[in-house]
């Protein structure tokens, strides 16, 4: 772990289905975070014997939340309750959220359909009505954000590199302008372009274009598109 003490715990909070992803995808992701010096928090780092609600304290200490939706995500009431709290903090401008669609479609998360929906509705049978409404609202809210999608036959190694780059971008924007950083994502032709960054020399900077499967606001995956990410520090 890159985290050395509770005082700097969790600049990135990971929300995911542990039984499904902990020893596979997530283990590779946190290895990449450690190599790039990105501080993070996952539930296995919590001290044994403490109340699980202490995780929400760690969430409050975080600046970014990675919500990793997978086929078994919605079978866990704990994942869903974490998501509700992530939504609340995001709406208050205290947390930046990056949704990750791990071999699930954004529209299935949003509408609780497909394999993702099967798990959700199984959980619904043993849950209260008020709880279900909060979960559905949180799923719709977070899945409507621009996120990164991994399909079945895509490279996980390349996908993780893309996540690291996006976390670095959001972290930089958050440090400069707080959690309410404004950015846009554009799909552009197969070419490299230059933009000017706002600093004294107005020097032109080349922007790296990442190959990534993005999910748009309608829940449709854009296959292998080249994406240019601009934040409020850049001009066209």
Automatic annotation (TrEMBL):
Pfam families: TIR
GO biological process entries: signal transduction
Keyword Secreted in annotation: no
Domain TIR: 8-171
Keywords: NAD
PROSITE patterns referenced in this protein's UniProt entry, alphabetically: TIR
PANTHER family: DISEASE RESISTANCE PROTEIN RBA1-RELATED, TMV RESISTANCE PROTEIN N-LIKE
Protein name: TIR domain-containing protein
Record organism: Brassica oleracea (Wild cabbage)
């Amino acid at each position: 772990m890159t985290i050395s003490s509770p005082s700097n715990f969790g600049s990135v909070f990971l929300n995911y289905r542990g039984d499904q992803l902990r020893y596979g995808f997530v283990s590779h992701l946190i290895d990449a975070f450690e190599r790039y010096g990105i501080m993070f928090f996952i539930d296995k780092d919590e001290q044994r014997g403490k109340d699980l609600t202490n995780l929400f304290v760690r969430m409050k200490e975080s600046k970014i939340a990675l919500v990793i939706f997978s086929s078994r995500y919605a079978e866990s009431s704990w994942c869903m309750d974490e998501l509700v709290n992530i939504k609340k903090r995001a709406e208050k401008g205290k947390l930046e959220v990056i949704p990750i669609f791990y071999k699930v479609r954004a529209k299935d998360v949003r509408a609780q359909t497909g394999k993702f929906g099967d798990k959700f509705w199984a959980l619904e049978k043993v849950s209260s009505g008020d709880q279900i409404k909060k979960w559905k609202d949180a799923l719709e809210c977070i899945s409507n954000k621009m996120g990164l999608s991994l399909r079945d036959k895509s490279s996980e190694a390349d996908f993780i590199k893309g996540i690291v780059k996006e976390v670095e971008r959001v972290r930089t924007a958050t440090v400069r302008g707080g959690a309410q950083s404004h950015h846009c994502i554009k799909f552009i032709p197969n070419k490299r372009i230059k933009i000017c960054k706002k600093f004294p020399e107005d020097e032109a900077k080349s922007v790296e274009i990442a190959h990534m499967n993005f999910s748009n606001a309608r829940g449709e995956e854009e296959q292998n598109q080249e994406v240019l990410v601009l934040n409020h520090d850049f001009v066209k």
